Amino acid sequence: MTDAKARALEEIAFCEALLAKGGQNVLTETFRETSGVTVWDHYPPGDVFDPVSGAQWFYHCHPAEEGASEHGHFHCFLRPDGVDGPIHHLAAIGVDPFGKLLRIFTVNQWVVGDDWLDADRTIPLARRFDMQMPRPSYLVNRWLTAVFAAYEDEIAKLIAERDRMLAAHTPPSGIAAREDRALEVTSELDLR
Predict the structure, then answer these.
(1) Could you list the pLDDT tens digit for every one of the 192 residues in the chain?
(2) SS3 (DSSP) at 101
């Protein structure tokens, strides 16, 4: 394990431990400004954007499925040209109802409707994900940044696998692979 990965894993543990001391976790902090959680809605409302790094994220959950351990996921993006520039999806971070990290995954373009870049141009953007904002919680933002740092190599492989999956995918006639709603998750790293 590299020193950078070890430091990032320590940062993840530090954020989780500090939140736990107050009876909180990354989800309770994410929902702090809301009175209830509705499936598909973005939390916090309006997303979180760092104007210095161009990093952006939101959390949402899908309708509950019986036996599913995942509550929802943080969709993480980068806007290299600022808030009005193109937006590129990097990866999603799935967590359980207590904010425990379960998986990191990539999605097909139709899922988030981002401005598509191939893996060669997306991977360097993922390495720039750095969220230093107070809202909704500085610790949640530090935690997400640390997840990207700790799993930098794995996220790069997931993004490359996303492109391989799409290149190998045969959608129905008349539908582009990136628009095929039968293909949602394009690569995944299970951390359970």
Answers:
(1) 789 999 999 999 999 999 999 999 999 999 988 888 888 999 999 999 999 999 999 999 988 777 679 999 999 999 999 999 999 999 999 999 999 999 999 999 999 999 999 999 999 999 999 999 999 999 999 999 999 999 999 999 999 999 999 999 999 999 999 999 999 999 999 998
(2) strand
Instruction: Read off the DSSP letter of residue 172.
Output: P
User: What pTM did the predictor assign?
Assistant: 0.95
Q: What are all long-range contacts of 173-179, with beta carbons under 8 Å and residues at least 24 apart?
A: 177/108, 178/108, 178/109, 178/110, 178/116, 179/108, 179/109, 179/110
Which phi-psi region, left, alpha or beta, contains residue 60 (left: φ > 0; alpha: ψ -120 to 50)? beta
Are the C-beta atoms of 185 and 106 separated by less than 8 Å?
A: yes
Q: In this structure, what token pair is assigned to residue 142?
A: 């530090």
Edge-to-edge strands of the sheet including 72-78? 43-49, 55-60, 72-78, 88-95, 101-107, 185-190
Strand partners, 88: 78
Q: How far apart are CA 19 and CA 118, in angstroms?
A: 36
**Separation CA 171–CA 8 (nearest Å):** 39
